[in-house]
Every structure is written in C-alpha cells, then in structure tokens.
Write a structure and sequence with these properties.
Blueprint (H helix, E strand, L loop, with lengths): L4 E4 L7 E4 L7 E3 L5 E5 L2 H10 L11 E6 L5 E6 L9 E7 L6 H8 L6 H10 L6 H6 L4 H9 L4 H4 L1 E7 L5 E2 L8 H12 L3 H20 L1 H5 E4 L2 E6 L4 E6 L3 E4 L21 H20 L2
Antiparallel strand pairs: 1-2, 3-4, 4-6, 5-6, 7-8, 7-11, 8-9, 10-13, 11-12
Helix pairs in contact: 8-10
The structure holds adenosine-5'-triphosphate and magnesium ion (2 copies).
One magnesium ion binds next to loops.
Length: 294
C-alpha cells in the first residue's frame, strides 16, 4: 500500500486532489478553477489539442493550452475530472495489449549490454523467469525484460490492466498491476463498484458510447494509443469515465493502418485498444448480470 499523491485545491470548492499513478510532482493546481496542470510533454500537448476538435472530445479532459509557472516551467492546463465529485472513488485502467512503443523496443535493442539490475528486478518478482543462461550470467537484456514485464499483468491477454484503485477515503494499492486472470479482475471491479447496479450500468453505457465514438473518430483511426488510460470516477450520485494520458500516443505514418483489435506483432503498430474496451464491456455486462440475478 502506497500513500496517495495529493494537493489541496485552494480555489473555490476546497478539496483534496488525488493522483493515482505516475511520478510525484507531475501535477499541480491549475490557473483556472476546475483545471489542473500537468508537466508538458510535446506529444501529449499535440494530442490534447487535436482531440478538442475530434468526435472523442467528450471523452477527454478539456484542454486550455499551455502555461508557464513562476520558474518558467511549462505545463498543459487540463480539466480536473475530479472537480464535480464529492469524495470520489477512482480507478485507472491502462488500455492496450502493450505499454511500450516499438521505437522504445528498438532503442533498447541498440544497447546490447545485459543488465544485472534488470535480472535482480526479474527474480524479485519471479525467480523462475530467467533462463538457465540468464541465471548463470545474473544479467538480462533490456528488450527481453520489457517483453517479459508485459506478461505479468492482464495487458497482453485482455488488452487492459488495472493500474490503481482508490476507494472513498480508502488507501490505494499498486499491486493491481500484477493481476492477470479475468476472474480476479472481475472481483476487483465488483469491489470497486461496491455492488451497485446503477453505477455499473452507467459505466457500461459510457463504455459502449466510447466504443462507438472510437469507431467514428478520425483521431482514433490515425493514431496508435500506447500507455493511455481510462479514468473511472464515481461518488454517491454519479459515475463516468474519460480517456487520459497521451504521452505515448503517436500519429501513425500514412502507410500504416491499424485495426486496434488485433494482437500485436512487431512492425504492425497494433495497440489492442479495442480489445481492452471490449473486454471491459464484457466484464461490466457479466457483473450486471450477476448482480441482477441476485
Ligand atoms: P504514467 O505515464 O506513469 O501513467 P503520467 O505522469 O503520464 O503517468 P497520468 O497517467 O496522466 O500521469 O495521470 C496519473 C494520475 O493522475 C491518474 O491515474 C489520475 O489519478 C490522475 N489524473 C490524471 N489526469 C487527470 C485529470 N484530468 N483529472 C483528474 N485526475 C487526473
Ligand atoms: Mg498514466
Ligand atoms: Mg503517461
């Protein structure tokens, strides 16, 4: 269990803002009410801007341009999705069958030096994961480590993984990232929903709308979405979800077309985004069926 990264908003409607994952210090209070600042990443800035003029507009935080603080550091100013909620429960699900870019894999292959630190990290999680040769050398190559790490979670198989959950007033755990089996995920989702049928139904409807909007979106058609999340937020009265985190979303070169719903093979750039959405839809439908049949 890790402590939450928070800051207290001082503007109208004082409340504690909560960040589930990512590095501490990436976010701070926005210049405008109802907005937050996130450290500027040029790729993400471009996506936020492009998405404001796309069909997916209502599924992403509103974007208010870039700003600089007193020290000259740059940020994007984006809608604070937590603002309308009262003591919200929050879940971050990373969508897609892989969470690294093909270019990251290529970069790691240019560095052919096996690393002892990666071997240590691997055996700390699973001492049977290294091959005999890797055990002998006590070192692991970076690309091998990157591909292995993806098999720890449900990403490869279900096209999404739970990154973190924060229940109202509760602590949060990051161990979610190692949950792999559909049944275990279903249990976590049930608990997050606190067995509420109306809440599950609202999320399901929003997922269905998101899916059909993706299929009609120019942005979705022309981009590879890697490491992007869906942020689920609810309180006693409402429940909704949004797409966030576009730091590793890239425009596809014009000769590459992806389906978003096929398994990834090297060079295809497939991200498996719709595999994740479809599995979430199936899980929410299962949960609603189970709750209604009592
Ligand atoms: P990483 O790449 O490691 O996932 P990051 O620094 O890119 O992290 P995000 O993933 O964008 O950061 O966000 C981290 C967390 O901050 C989210 O899980 C969520 O809890 C919170 N967060 C991000 N954007 C918003 C938003 N617009 N409104 C409310 N909360 C947000
Ligand atoms: Mg993220
Ligand atoms: Mg990110």
């Amino acid at each position: 269990v890790t402590s939450l990264l928070t800051f207290t908003r001082t503007k109208k409607g004082r409340y504690e803002w909560i960040q589930l994952v990512g590095h501490p210090g990436t976010f701070k209070e926005g210049f405008h009410d109802g907005y937050i600042l996130k450290d500027l990443c040029e790729y993400e800035r471009y996506c936020c801007e492009a998405l404001q003029n796309d069909r997916l507009k209502h599924f992403v935080p509103k974007y208010n341009g870039t700003v600089k603080d007193e020290e000259g550091k740059s940020y994007i100013e984006i809608e604070d999705l937590l603002a309308p909620f009262n003591d919200p429960c929050i879940m971050d699900c990373k969508i897609g069958v892989r969470t690294y870019l093909e270019e990251d894999l290529e970069k790691s292959e240019r560095d052919p030096v096996p690393r002892a630190d990666l071997y240590e990290k691997m055996i700390a999680i699973d001492s049977s994961a290294p091959t005999e040769q890797e055990h002998d050398e006590k070192k692991i190559l970076k690309p091998r480590y990157m591909i292995w790490r993806e098999t720890l979670s449900s990403s490869q198989e279900l096209g999404f993984r739970i990154e973190a959950i924060k229940k109202s007033r509760g602590l949060m755990s990051k161990e979610f990232q190692r949950i792999k089996d559909r049944e275990d995920i279903r249990k976590q989702l049930m608990e997050f929903l606190a067995n509420s049928i109306p809440r599950a139904t609202r999320y399901l409807n929003r997922l269905l709308e998101l899916r059909s909007t993706c299929l009609r979106s120019k942005f979705f058609e022309t981009h590879e979405l890697i490491g992007s999340s869906l942020l689920f937020v609810h309180d006693a009265n409402r429940a909704s979800l949004w797409m966030i985190d576009f730091g590793k979303t890239r425009k596809l070169s014009s000769d590459i077309h992806i389906t978003h719903s096929q398994a990834w093979r090297r060079g295809t750039h497939e991200d498996g985004y719709l595999i994740g959405i479809d599995n979430l839809i199936l899980l929410f439908q299962d949960i609603i069926d189970e709750l209604t049949s009592g």
